[in-house]
Here is the input.
Amino acid sequence: MTDDAAPGPQPQTTSEQTTAAVQPSADETTSTSRLDPVPGEWRRVSSKYIVVDLVSTLVWGVVMTFASSLPAWLLDWGIWWWALPVAVGAIMLATIILTPRRVRSIGYRLRDDDLLFRRGIMFQRFVAVPFGRMQLVDITRGPLARAVGLAELKLVTAAAATGVVIPGLPLEEAEELRDHLVALAETRRAGL
Amino acid sequence: MTQLADGDWHRLHPATPLLKGGIAFIAILGVVIANLRERLIEVFVPGLECPEEFCTDDPISIILDRYLILALLATVGVLVLIIALFWLSWRMHTFRITDEVVEVRSGVIFRSHRKARLDRVQGINVSRPLFARIFGAAKLELSTAGSDANVELSYLTGANADGLRAEILRRASGIRAGAAAAAVETLPGEGQGEGGADALPADAARAGLGDVARQRFAEFTAPELDPDLAPPQSVVTMSAGRLIGSTLLSTTMIFFVITIAVMVIIMTTTDAGSWVFFALIPTVFGFGSYLVNRVLKSLRYSIASTPDGVRVGYGLLSTTNDTLPPGRIHAVQVTQDLLWRPADWWMVSINLASHSATQGSSAAQQKTTILPVGSRADVLKVLELVLPELVTDETRLLIEGGLTRSLPEDGYTTTPRRAAVLRWFSWRRNGFLLHPDAVILRKGAIWRTLTVVPTARTQSVAAHQGPLERLLGVAHVRVHTVAGPVTAEIGAIDVTDASALFRDTASAGVAAIGADRSHRWGAG
Here is the structure.
């Protein structure tokens, strides 16, 4: 239960940000323009989830690449139609290469009154869900995740946009977390 | 206290099947009359005979001549069967209101039993469709959160519906019986309403036809809102001129005029004229009905504050009114069409937790549009009604600042200049303000918008950043509320400000949950 006590890279001046806009590649400037509303330690998901994510991305990638190559394959429309499967394949390859980083970017943190969730490297997303607003906590397990003993925890509030799904939790941890969250939600019960 | 709320099972208005199938009934009657027109004329004007061969070949003549008894028996049989079915379904349709729940049982073959907790009530709607209104009946609908989670009592007598609404709201508010008796005495309007509910059905049965007609007429011409129920200074009403003017200047209207102009140009300049003409007619009719609907529905509009929440009334011929208890409004948005700006007209829409799946999208839109058009003073008054704890004398200036152009000292944190590329025209205006009770977002230079989300109603909050935003050192923040026309999202905000907004909204939400007692708004 670390709270947001760390000072972090928060204080910054406008001039620094203007340089960030000009030369975003420089390391110290990207750190200032990068979104990190609640600096501190995050609880990461299991590294086994990398395997699950890799396999499912790989299967998807092969299917998508094959499907996008169908026009070039079946219809005699010219060589340029091969560009489509090449592009799809390249995107899928990049996704696969980035998978370990993407999985490492998933994190959650329990604070006194709410749960914080983060994910994404290119498109970052931070969500705070107060315990009193949780309507439902769901555990789902796909065949791949079950093979490596992982589960997925889903939080449902009255807003559909909340969309907090924590993948890649070891089953015991997921169940423990679910019971903990349900108990917390019960003590902080409120109207809608 | 209304007899209907005594905890026993009760039945609905006996004319319910007729009222529910009212329009179909009239339509069938119309078809029958149109088909028998010749015969009816013959019956009433005996001298006017129809041509010989037409009358003898008429299938009705054949039936009347040869199978009279059989036809009569069949008609009577079908009628008896229909009446028996209707009677059975009416008998099986019962409801019960206890201190804690409302229950409805219905259905003959497929039984259904619906139960709703009173402290989970999101709003009560009393509507009087034109046909039911002629018979003095009304429909009471209790909405709870979720889609199609409404408990509907259709139909009740009008006075019963009003009395029942007052009683349900009193029980839902959590005022205990002892306190309630005192409350009824101090509120003469409600007291009268409930007394009337007991006496009315018996009176109506005893009264002659003339009295019934007079009573109906009185109900028809009575003001939409009982003046005893709400102090007049808290009431916002609609002026006909403004409603018509705003409709003529709306984006839909402009779109329509352009469509018509294009069609007419095509018609006059090309050969495809006749085809376009056939497309033109339904367009004109469709749009005409939209305009008439909008004007008719909003003409007798009123919004007022009652002890049990905001009350919104609509409708000229078919009337509807919604009572929204405190704390049931999840987000508010004030918007302005481009052409409304010279007149300073605004529209207010809200997010509600209940969604009516049966009434269709137009009804849902009407329910979430809490002020179809109003002046700035009206907007402030409506905001004061829907968010009473937020709109005070100090915050009034902040909110007015949200409706005008950006001023240096108005308290809003706006988009930094370097991110103007993301908000070409509105970067000076685009900003937010965090009040302890609400998040206020101000957006748009051409289509001005002000969004207010009470922190006691936020479900969660999210901060996002994409690659382009990272390049510019900005982020966007979204406050999640229940689904509705209002989306509370503010983009192109400096990373530091966005982070602060995210943190503060999250902690303000937690604090507001702890302090929120609105699900039992009358208790304590």
Remarks:
- The first helix of chain B runs from residue 16 to 20.
